[in-house]
Write a structure and sequence with these properties.
This protein is an alpha/beta fold and 129 residues long. Strands 2-1-3-4-5 form a five-stranded parallel beta sheet, with helices on both faces. Strand 1, helix 1 and strand 2 form a beta-alpha-beta unit. The longest helix has 13 residues. It starts with 8 loop residues before the first strand and ends in a 5-residue tail after the last helix. The relative contact order is 0.18. The model has no long low-confidence stretch (mean pLDDT 92).
Length: 129
């Protein structure tokens, strides 16, 4: 059976248009509503408006990187329960540890697969399947 995440709001924050488009296409195919943001600043205002169910954040971004963005989300009492999945092209222990320190819920290495993306949603949101 095909997964359906209808009604789920996922946010993808990445300064790479390719990554944003790839993630958005994958997520829309399974019924997610997708909000995209170019960087942490762009994302923070959208989080307040849109209240996503899960957030995917690239680590390396200009202005406000993924760690800083994650820390800001997790330090805000209204948003701290939103699961945050870090996306990085580096698969280093240091990066994973740093991600955990700022409160991220999971860490995916780019390029991520469709299954990894959907597993992250499954693991961190209360979807019926």
């Amino acid at each position: 059976m095909e997964d359906s995440f209808a009604g789920l709001k996922a946010m993808v924050i990445d300064d790479s248009k390719t990554i944003r488009r790839t993630a958005e296409t994958l997520l829309k195919k399974v019924g997610c509503e997708v909000i995209t943001a170019l960087d942490g600043f762009d994302a923070l205002s959208k989080i307040a408006d849109q209240k996503p169910d899960i957030i995917f954040i690239d680590i390396m971004m200009p202005r406000l990187d993924g760690y800083q963005t994650c820390a800001l989300i997790k330090n805000n009492k209204e948003y701290k329960n939103i699961p945050v999945v870090m996306l990085s092209s580096k698969d280093g222990l240091f990066d994973k540890a740093k991600g955990r320190i700022v409160g991220s819920d999971q860490y995916l290495t780019k390029p991520f697969s469709r299954d990894e993306l959907l597993d992250a949603i499954r693991n961190h949101t209360s979807q019926p399947n």
